[in-house]
Design brief:
The protein has 272 residues and is mainly alpha-helical. The protein folds into two domains: 15-131, no CATH class; 138-271, no CATH class. Helix content is 71%, strand content 7%. A three-stranded antiparallel beta sheet has the order 1-2-3. A hairpin with a 2-residue loop joins strand 1 (67-72) and strand 2 (75-80). Helix 5 (138-155) crosses helix 8. The radius of gyration is 26 Å and the shape is elongated. Residues 1-25 have low confidence and may be disordered.
Length: 272
Amino acid sequence: MQMEGEQRLHADNNDRHGQESSDFESVGSIAKVCLLAGKIILQSGGETSRVEDTMTRIAAAYGIADSHSYVTPTGILFAANGSAPATQLIRISERSVNLRKVSLVNDISRKISGGRLAAEEAYELLKEVDKQASTYSPRLQVLAAALASGSFVIVFQGGWQDFLPAFLAGGLGFMLVLALHKFVPVKFFAEFIAAAAIGVSAALMVQTGFGRQLDSIIIGSVMPLVPGLHITNAVRDLMAGHLVSGLSKGAEAFLTAFAIGAGIAVVLSFYS
């Protein structure tokens, strides 16, 4: 009888240990799904509140009602409480603007909330989204930036005779940004060089008579480089109470704007 009691107790302990191990693995897999979704959104230009809301909704859909996340522009900390708590951290080293990825992650999150995706399936779909390259080719991005530069000249009440000069200067500047980002890890340096190139090309076109209003050409050409999304996200994060993220994104946007302004100022100091 004593041996049977000891065997039964040993079996109960094994079952409890196996259940806790299985619970830990399931919570860990859910945490991975939440972190990957948050990483994609944050790297693709999403705001902090969207990242935290998406992670919380995914965790709740998989049965983890008590979850917490702490998001900054350089890292995400996620904790899932329960019988087997799991806490994981992921670093964010690169950030860009790809709102298509944000939309894809939102679609996957809605499917998870609707109970149509298991954790393993959702993780595989998110990995496919994460591996996707830029939506548009560099040539198409340069062409779009050039068209936007020429269009901004008209928006800012410039003349149609400056549309083509701004088209060329803006396309050149954006092409330099894409090229220098591949070789220079400090993106502010690339933006400074691109802004200086825009200033030089605009000044040369005005001097040769190809363009007329230097101010309109420069303003229109630098608009594709302006960090509008970062400024918007910084303001939204500050209004939502995310002070660390808001201040850091605001500082990043300020440094980018400063690099653009410094590049133009250097050229104009020689031109005038």
